[in-house]
Amino acid sequence: MFSLTLESLHTDLPTITATATVLVVLVHLVPYLIDSHRLRSYPGPLVAKFSDAWLGYVTHQGHRSEVVHDLHRKYGPFVRIAPNHVSVAVSDAQPMVYGHGNGALKSSFYDAFITTSIGIFTTRDRQTHTRKRKIISHTFSQKSVLEFEPHVHRYVGQLLGQWDKLYEKALKGMSGEEGEGWTGRDGRLWLDCLPWANYLAFDIIGDLAFGAPFGMIMAAKDSAPVAQDTHAVMKSYGQAGAKHASKEIEVIKTLGGPSETFLVTMGAVPGWWRAVLKRTPMFWKGGKDFDALVGMAVAAVSKRLQEPTDRNDLLSKLQAGKDEDGNPMGREELTAEALTFLIAGSDTTANSTCAIIYYLARTPSVQEKLHKELDEHLESGIATAERVKNLAYLQAIINEGLRLHSTVAMGLPRVAPEGGMSILGNYIPGGTVISVPTYTIHRDQAVFGDDVEEFRPERWFECDSAGVSKAFSPFSVGPRACIGRNLANFELQIIIASILKRYHFVLENPDEVLKVQEGLLRKPIGCRVDQPPPKTVFFRDAYLLGVFSACYDAGTRVGSALLLQTVLLGIELVWRVVTRPEECLREVALYVWIFTDFVASAMILAVVLLGVLCWDYDCMVIWLDFGYPRLCGLVECMKRRSSAYLVRRFDEQ
């Protein structure tokens, strides 16, 4: 009979430890020696050939794309990054891996992202994906996206208004409280644009998806309601008067916390590891944060369904969708798709906006060229889709930003079909996981030139278009590509154009490298920039949309009129003194009036020109508090004097 005592355990502990170690080694060594995957010929890290632990560890560290990129530079286009996973860094491989009709399906990686139900992002079944895509694809067509424009304009306008107010406070030497992320120093505003980009993106997608924003921009606060009992709330969807406990969470902070690497790490390891890892202290917090995000989606859906509306938002599209039997989406499926909308529609836009602003601030020459294009083609106020759609340099800047900072930079895993597949002459056995890393493809020197690490939008006018179309894939390619890519590009065009039409950005630290943290999405950790005076500010307290640009246009017109007036007064004064010196003695008052008007016009003209040409805010203050009222009085006075003078001279004659 077997018995276990403390003494025997102490005696046998070395034996038990040695046995366990040998078993672990054999579990990983034997499959490698047998080479059941037939991948031994592919190079890669030694540990990665034996165990999924290497890829799981690298993924959890938050820099998977950079690490895999370095491996490709070391080993070449084919790298083994797990016992059954080959990374292929060749742009021509993208249609082979992700294209139509290749038979490669999503891997078990996506199972880690399943929430209340399988969604359009997590489904691995081709037929299920086709059904879901049919329901919502027309919602993201180019025609449908244009219908969202007024809502996008509303929140971009709110953002600019909030930034103008912060600038006003910064001028007075004020700074935000701890955690607000803005500082007034030396008459300039320094702020972290990442939180604001998130506020904007969340309010836009909240309105487009659920008919109401989260209110983050106007509150200047990271906060959203979360259902505490998600199952109870889902059961009461659409029931009038149903009330459930909820709480506010910092959703942006939650998205950037442990949940970001939690899911992608779970996806990188075998399924049987996940149940164990989720219960470890390292991953427990990430799991709780992910549950909170699900609760946010549940709360948003519940609120929308309790307040019926004729608004044709994204949720109404989902409700109208039917499966193959004519049945509508269930509450669990509806919630899963809502969460996909929230994350994919907000986090990605915010990350891209922040990254593009960073690159523009770091590259003043590019920012200056963009300012010129915007000034030449855009009117005052928020940029319209019609105006920005043909701005070539703006689109090149967006493309260059997405190239260097792809929101999803890692290779999205697919499973080679039964019978295997050939990729550029290399045989990939059936069942092998394959991926094409976007981060590396976007740095292919054969396509984008030798300076691939530089932010240079001009390359988009120089590179071979055929090669670029194969390599550039910020939204992936094929039938599983991002369904919202039209909306994403549409938002970025309006956001970047509107912000850069109005502001000029400078990095607080000119040598700062954009720090990022990568889970499934590649996120900037922050981007602290300085905003010199808004380019179009004339009136300090005018925050309504378009007022600033209108004032600027008015200022240039007034400046032109003043210039003409000053020149004419000067000519008249000199001509009278030279040709009619005796008149100076008889009509001293007239000459004093002319001289006074000339000096006043010249002084106000100088103020206006300084403000218009140099964007000097102090000149604008003088213009507001001193110059403009006196100019109006001066003009009226001149009219009266001129009329009286002409009448008098006419009577004398």
From TrEMBL:
<dbReference type="InterPro" id="IPR001128">
    <property type="entry name" value="Cyt_P450"/>
</dbReference>
<dbReference type="InterPro" id="IPR002401">
    <property type="entry name" value="Cyt_P450_E_grp-I"/>
</dbReference>
<keyword id="KW-0479">Metal-binding</keyword>
<dbReference type="Pfam" id="PF00067">
    <property type="entry name" value="p450"/>
</dbReference>
<keyword id="KW-0408">Iron</keyword>
<dbReference type="InterPro" id="IPR036396">
    <property type="entry name" value="Cyt_P450_sf"/>
</dbReference>
<dbReference type="GO" id="GO:0016705">
    <property type="term" value="F:oxidoreductase activity, acting on paired donors, with incorporation or reduction of molecular oxygen"/>
</dbReference>
<dbReference type="InterPro" id="IPR017972">
    <property type="entry name" value="Cyt_P450_CS"/>
</dbReference>
<feature type="binding site" description="axial binding residue">
    <location>
        <position position="482"/>
    </location>
    <ligand>
        <name>heme</name>
    </ligand>
</feature>
<dbReference type="GO" id="GO:0020037">
    <property type="term" value="F:heme binding"/>
</dbReference>
<dbReference type="InterPro" id="IPR050121">
    <property type="entry name" value="Cytochrome_P450_monoxygenase"/>
</dbReference>
<keyword id="KW-1133">Transmembrane helix</keyword>
<keyword id="KW-0812">Transmembrane</keyword>
<comment type="pathway">
    <text>Secondary metabolite biosynthesis.</text>
</comment>
<keyword id="KW-0503">Monooxygenase</keyword>
<protein>
    <submittedName>
        <fullName>Related to Benzoate 4-monooxygenase cytochrome P450</fullName>
    </submittedName>
</protein>
<keyword id="KW-0472">Membrane</keyword>
<comment type="similarity">
    <text>Belongs to the cytochrome P450 family.</text>
</comment>
<dbReference type="GO" id="GO:0005506">
    <property type="term" value="F:iron ion binding"/>
</dbReference>
<feature type="transmembrane region" description="Helical">
    <location>
        <begin position="590"/>
        <end position="615"/>
    </location>
</feature>
<keyword id="KW-0560">Oxidoreductase</keyword>
<dbReference type="GO" id="GO:0004497">
    <property type="term" value="F:monooxygenase activity"/>
</dbReference>
<keyword id="KW-0349">Heme</keyword>
